[in-house]
Every structure is written in C-alpha cells, then in structure tokens.
Design a protein that fits this description.
Length: about 210
C-alpha cells in the first residue's frame, strides 16, 4: 500500500512556517499525553491559542497533522545523529553499536515525549488508522535497518558479533526496547530513574551479541 503524504500548504512567509512548527510541537505533546482518539483538533487549537479554522488551514485533517508530526520527529532524530555519522563509519562495529545505543538513550531522555508519542500513537494507529501506522512503521524501520547494518558488519566483516543471532531481530529489540523504557519510566517516574534502566538494557544487549 503506498504511503499517504500529509496534505501540505505552500508556505512562503516566515511567520507561517514558525506557526506550523509551533502546531507540530504542541501536537506531539498532546498526542503523547492523550493519544489519537482522545485528542481533538478543537482541543489542540485551544492549546496553541489558535482558531480551529486557522489550524485546519495548516492541517485539513487530524490524520494530516499526525503524518506531519511523524515526519517531524523522524527528521529531528535523524538530524541529531549528524555529528556522529562521519566518525562512526571509522569505528569497529561494537563501538558503532554502543554509540548508537548511547545516543538513542540520551535523545529519548532529552525528548521524552517523542518516545511516548511513538508508543501511544503506535498502539492506537495499529488498530484504527492504517496510514498513520504505515508512516510510523516506515520511520521506525529506518532506524532498525541502520542498526541491522551495523550488526551485520560486526558479524561478517569485523567478526565482533555472534552469527547465531538474527541481526534484524536484535535491531528491533534495541529500537522498541528504548521506546518501551520511555513509556515505563513515564509510568513509574516517581520510583524509577531512567538512565540506569536504559544502561542496563544496552549492556545486556551488547554483551549478548558479543563474540565469546
């Protein structure tokens, strides 16, 4: 099924671009807190002190807004890796994977609502909104594929990783494990610190695939 792109107005004025960014930022926060079904466009308009008509001018439907929010989160996460990319390609696979895990954990600690958004919206979209579910799957699989490539490099080229584990399965465990831990910490934030649980998961994963 071809992925539907969000409806997008041609925006030329800086003020309109800024408004669109503010809408997306508020939408990500609201969807992370309330999910898809409980969040209405009218509620979002009130949250950003905008008339519903003005909001609909930027995003004709809630689905368009969700698709744009997913793309915004995806691009933000990808851009956050740019300082690492040139250096990582020179490193052994184990160091690359450790750097990816460390960066992902820190990113989600600094942008907690992004991970919660993925968890909340992903759970609802899988049952209710196929276009949104497809967009989420496509974005998340970009990260899975990147990790899978590092693991296969460590299995086949540098011989640092065990070959009796499936690279794609481990990559999925890393991405969705991190998202799950953000959701867990949000629920138990009064009693659980985020950094130790993330570090423990990464330590176990890295040790588990290391060649003995």
């Amino acid at each position: 099924m071809p992925k539907r792109a969000p409806a997008k107005r041609a925006i030329k004025q800086d003020r309109a671009v800024k408004t669109r960014q503010e809408i997306l930022k508020s939408a990500i926060t609201l969807f992370a807190r309330r999910g898809i079904l409980a969040t209405t466009m009218a509620e979002l308009a009130r949250a950003i002190h905008m008339t519903p008509g003005a909001l609909y001018w930027h995003f004709p439907t809630k689905e368009d807004l969700l698709l744009a929010a997913i793309e915004e989160l995806h691009q933000h996460f990808v851009r956050s890796f740019e300082p690492l990319l040139n250096e990582m390609t020179k490193w052994p696979a184990a160091r690359q994977l450790e750097a990816f895990c460390t960066h992902t954990g820190q990113y989600l600690q600094d942008n907690r609502e992004h991970g919660i958004f993925y968890g909340m919206v992903g759970a609802e979209a899988a049952e209710n909104t196929e276009d949104v579910a497809t967009a989420l799957r496509d974005a998340l699989q970009v990260y899975v594929t990147a990790i899978e490539g590092i693991i296969r490099y460590g299995q086949n080229k540098t011989k640092e990783f065990r070959t009796d584990v499936d690279a794609r399965t481990v990559a999925n465990n890393i991405i969705f494990g991190n998202i799950g831990l953000v959701v867990q910490h949000n629920l138990f934030r009064e009693t659980i610190s985020y950094a130790p649980i993330v570090q423990t998961m990464h330590t176990l994963l890295l040790a588990g695939i290391a060649k003995k």
